[in-house]
Write a structure and sequence with these properties.
Elements: E1 11-15, E2 20-24, H1 33-41, E3 51-55, H2 61-66, E4 73-77, H3 81-93, E5 100-103, E6 119-124, H4 141-147, H5 154-164, E7 165-175, H6 180-189, E8 192-201, E9 210-217, E10 225-226, E11 230-231, H7 241-248
Parallel strand pairs: 3-4, 3-6, 4-5, 6-7, 8-10, 8-11
Antiparallel strand pairs: 1-2, 7-9, 8-9
Helix pairs in contact: 5-6
Length: 252
């Protein structure tokens, strides 16, 4: 691992199952389980000429988690300068500068730099909540933008996803189940068809609070598969075996 400079409020966290280290800050942004689950769920293009784009990249967690799955190039797109800087230093920290690029750009303008119809795989952990007048938002602007659709909404993000993808290119999103109707209608508008869906439940008897979706550009309709559910916690409050393995690796 390379040496990097940390700000006073930053720390280095490790995803032990992959030996990936990520610069985090509770004052600005820290990845959570949804990023780990998305990185695992995504079947990114593997070839050395593959182009993978991580939209709404935050501190780069999803792209970093996916880096071991591909020989292709990963471009992380993040609008907030502080988060893009954290992502860039994490790329250096993990010796991935040859494989991963961080762009501090507005994703709505990204096709000025990344050609349309040129990307094999898009990854995205977008803001989950609509920007409504009555929405309670964090007073911390970094967290507010990460959680609410302030800089880009779902319609815009899926439109950019479709623009970037080649025909039959795939995108992987993590979102909230209550937004599925929005997701399906907007995907259809943007030539994206759902292919695999996996619901994530905090405990076995609880409703799902996350959903992982694989979509394909210009794919055949009515081919969606519902995967077995993922349960995060056992009844005793400990991580279930699958999540524990994703975070810490297999038990010795």
């Amino acid at each position: 691992m390379a040496d990097v400079t940390l700000h006073a409020d930053e720390r280095i966290d490790q995803l032990y199952s992959q030996d990936i280290q990520i610069i985090q800050s509770s004052q600005v942004f820290a990845f959570s389980l949804d990023a780990v689950l998305l990185g695992d769920f995504a079947q990114v293009a593997k070839g050395v000429k593959s182009q993978i784009v991580d939209l709404c990249a935050g501190n780069g967690a999803v792209g970093l988690f996916a880096s071991a799955k591909t020989q292709g190039h990963i471009t992380a797109v993040e609008i907030q300068p502080r988060l893009a800087d954290m992502a860039q230093r994490s790329v250096v920290l993990n010796d991935l500068t040859q494989q991963m690029t961080v762009l501090n750009e507005d994703l709505l303008e990204i096709t000025r730099q990344l050609p349309k119809d040129s990307v094999d795989t898009v990854l995205c952990n977008p803001p989950y909540f609509k920007d409504r007048p009555q929405s309670v938002k964090s007073p911390n602007p970094h967290l507010a933008i990460a959680r609410h659709e302030l800089s880009a909404n779902l319609d815009q993000i899926l439109a950019v996803t479709s623009d970037l993808l080649k025909m039959n290119g795939k995108a992987y999103f993590v979102h909230r189940p209550e937004r599925l109707d929005d997701l399906f209608s907007t995907m259809a508008t943007n030539r994206l068809a759902p292919k695999r869906i996996r619901f994530v439940h905090p405990k076995a008897q609880r409703e799902a609070n996350m959903v992982l979706i694989e979509m394909i550009k210009d794919g055949k309709r009515n081919g969606v598969r519902i995967m077995p559910p993922l349960v995060v916690y056992r009844d005793d409050g400990e991580y279930g075996e699958e999540v524990h393995t994703l975070l810490y690796g297999k038990h010795k």
